[in-house]
């Protein structure tokens, strides 16, 4: 007698054929693979031959205090028995499990896997402390789930396997969502599975086939023959399948396999997809840096497991910092990475230290990202990266083509521009031309993702969304679970193999090395379009402002590192050096530079990470600041040691060091009198002319040469000195601001006048008038007010910390006002003080500072900010007519429209600028300078700068603290190109270094180290080469000088130095020697330059 379900019975009337209800049939397909209600009678019932939980014994050690510990430490823990069904937490906790498996008799000869699912992330370790592979649990099904570890390919009954699991109580995607302000401390994770299993290979393969057939039915057009064939054969598969019937399972499997085998095509496809596995791991975001270290280990070890299974599989990963972490913490995994890199499967890419933000970082920081990244990759893999890989950054500077090319990368890959929320970018493959016209070959994958799932939809999109079919038939497809790591799952790899040459599909698919893809793209593409200038992301504009303290720290640390390198190099290479024992602090500089570069990751510096991340970030910045200041002081002492004297008639003076490549015409510096030597007379005939409110001496500094050190007396007063004056005045009535929100009645105000400007303020400190004397031009628009603080409702559509939308400009109002008073009244400086109660929760103190030295009005601000989804801006309506405003970018500037004529113009309602923004017309202009802000908007003549935001996700403490920052208004003669705005903004940030000094009146300090004949050719960096050509203390110094052209002009600069130049060569930013540089008289470099060109020069100098 035959049992039901083991042998198919003949059916009458040929009913076992495809019925005519397409939608119902598709739902039938879905139910055939669905977990849940019917999984005991559908294909899921055929996935395992055997399963046993009794064969597994678990013991657990909870790591105290949310620590992440080493394997060696974990071995010292106290392990107690545990079992499936228990809960583990809280969030961020780590648990180590000791696992013992005894193979049951009925598993003899089988391929046995260990399966563990606690809905979180796990690393499997051997008992010898070797990390093996990562697991990702989801508490069920889904494409993110990878919970099995192969124990043995052929089991022996009674065989014992022991190993350890390191379980991290966090989800792959982080501790909370991007809009959730806090990780939920009450989250716990239930251990659902801890079994050994034997897979039914036929069932697993059929599941892969069938899911792919469903995709073909649902996602290809119905009129395609491939769609109809997939529908027919999928239906046949279900009709052939029987529960608990191996022969029926094989028949169903063979039907599916035949479908894919019969649909393999021959010949050339119209489109070629180059696929590479990828695992985008944010270096920090919804998890801290320390968890990223473990994510990289878990994710990459899993990919190595897949490489061992499939020699055709290729995988790429970027970010030298993550490689360095894996090398340190998981050396055996790193050795595997090196082995599979040689086989062409594990492919380093990107060439930078981290995937950095490209809006806010300085030009030199970008250079260091490439310098340290490429040096790392070359030292570990014997070669540099050729593909600049940056898929997820929030906009791309116009100087990146030049910088990446100088780092040896002429190919660029990203996809983030597909996120534009106003205009669709018109290209996928194109030549991107930078500010200086350097071109790189750029590719945006048309699937619009770096984390593809190898679905039919993704692959069809790769073809149909490709915008440059007329010029190329190739595109790249990056696939694998990203953001929180994980990478490709093996079913993804299998799907690509089945789809790779499938008849009816509009493309072929091949595994690729990104470098080889670009080489073939470069060789075969034709007449590509050219995109000039920045790749502006029309999204995430709030990241120019969020987390203001982090952005300030970044700017200050960049400046500090520049000063340390400048002073240390001079101390080492000074031909008059009297401190031969000084050693250039290469190791410490590299360490703290890498901390700054780490914090420039594209979810950290922009302000879009958890508070937990920023606790580490601030700690790193404090380390950089403390270490940098110590190194700076050592360099100063070594450098200034030359100027010491045994003369008994020493006098107290102050040495001023100008590290910039322009002279300082005049400025004021403050000297803390407590730093002066007790009992020593002041040098000069006069004491200081003015003390600041906090008791510091104000010293007038004039005619300070570029790149020089010079001594000044405390009472320095040049013959042409004109003191500054302040007086109270009566202001005219009926003045309003740019939006007609404020009506000012006739009242008292203040007038401040120096040799350059006349500035009038109302009683609240708002700027009523600003007259530039040399042009007699009024800078403030008629009947309007400047220095007005505006509050705007800041509720974006999508991502809180990331976005500020155009409609925020529709809903703004003036902040509450305080009354100004005179705090300092000259003759060197006038200070007005005002405290504004911005709202009921927040206040702002402002010092308005004008000196006798120049026409700059500085606004020094202190804000206690406690708002909710409010943005604070400062506004200046300018009496200037121009269709574009000029904003500093890395190593140059970019001009953007001041109108909204087109949707592309409107999209730039909020833009990024560095140290200055300028609005100029013929003969006159006004610049807005800053010391730590980046968000600007200019509409017509109204220029606004974004100061603070208050988003609540993912960090509800964002900017909820006291802030201190400065900005300045600078009216100038001439248009921007005729002005000295670049110099003013640079020197506003790179302040002269003040060093109280005992001097011999007969031998005053005055040394000039650098001077350039071209004001637009800026010396930005002075450092010792990374790989010096001479050993320390061998009499010569290997120096790097980095210049850039700042206005868009060309010429030849004669750069005089104090050095004895032995040899001079141009070099790239990786410091490779190139052509020689002309040297005149042993000390002068002759350097030709082009518009916006970055020029690096490598010198061999002799201090003697």
TrEMBL record:
<keyword id="KW-0326">Glycosidase</keyword>
<dbReference type="InterPro" id="IPR011682">
    <property type="entry name" value="Glyco_hydro_38_C"/>
</dbReference>
<dbReference type="InterPro" id="IPR027291">
    <property type="entry name" value="Glyco_hydro_38_N_sf"/>
</dbReference>
<dbReference type="Pfam" id="PF01074">
    <property type="entry name" value="Glyco_hydro_38N"/>
</dbReference>
<dbReference type="InterPro" id="IPR037094">
    <property type="entry name" value="Glyco_hydro_38_cen_sf"/>
</dbReference>
<keyword id="KW-0479">Metal-binding</keyword>
<protein>
    <recommendedName>
        <fullName>Alpha-mannosidase</fullName>
        <ecNumber>3.2.1.24</ecNumber>
    </recommendedName>
</protein>
<keyword id="KW-0378">Hydrolase</keyword>
<dbReference type="InterPro" id="IPR000602">
    <property type="entry name" value="Glyco_hydro_38_N"/>
</dbReference>
<comment type="function">
    <text>Degrades free oligosaccharides in the vacuole.</text>
</comment>
<feature type="domain" description="Glycoside hydrolase family 38 central">
    <location>
        <begin position="538"/>
        <end position="621"/>
    </location>
</feature>
<dbReference type="InterPro" id="IPR054723">
    <property type="entry name" value="Ams1-like_N"/>
</dbReference>
<dbReference type="GO" id="GO:0046872">
    <property type="term" value="F:metal ion binding"/>
</dbReference>
<dbReference type="Pfam" id="PF07748">
    <property type="entry name" value="Glyco_hydro_38C"/>
</dbReference>
<comment type="similarity">
    <text>Belongs to the glycosyl hydrolase 38 family.</text>
</comment>
<dbReference type="InterPro" id="IPR011013">
    <property type="entry name" value="Gal_mutarotase_sf_dom"/>
</dbReference>
<dbReference type="GO" id="GO:0030246">
    <property type="term" value="F:carbohydrate binding"/>
</dbReference>
<dbReference type="Pfam" id="PF09261">
    <property type="entry name" value="Alpha-mann_mid"/>
</dbReference>
<dbReference type="GO" id="GO:0000329">
    <property type="term" value="C:fungal-type vacuole membrane"/>
</dbReference>
<dbReference type="Pfam" id="PF22907">
    <property type="entry name" value="Ams1-like_1st"/>
</dbReference>
<dbReference type="Pfam" id="PF17677">
    <property type="entry name" value="Glyco_hydro38C2"/>
</dbReference>
<dbReference type="GO" id="GO:0009313">
    <property type="term" value="P:oligosaccharide catabolic process"/>
</dbReference>
<dbReference type="GO" id="GO:0006013">
    <property type="term" value="P:mannose metabolic process"/>
</dbReference>
<dbReference type="GO" id="GO:0004559">
    <property type="term" value="F:alpha-mannosidase activity"/>
</dbReference>
<dbReference type="InterPro" id="IPR011330">
    <property type="entry name" value="Glyco_hydro/deAcase_b/a-brl"/>
</dbReference>
<dbReference type="InterPro" id="IPR015341">
    <property type="entry name" value="Glyco_hydro_38_cen"/>
</dbReference>
<dbReference type="InterPro" id="IPR041147">
    <property type="entry name" value="GH38_C"/>
</dbReference>
<dbReference type="InterPro" id="IPR028995">
    <property type="entry name" value="Glyco_hydro_57/38_cen_sf"/>
</dbReference>
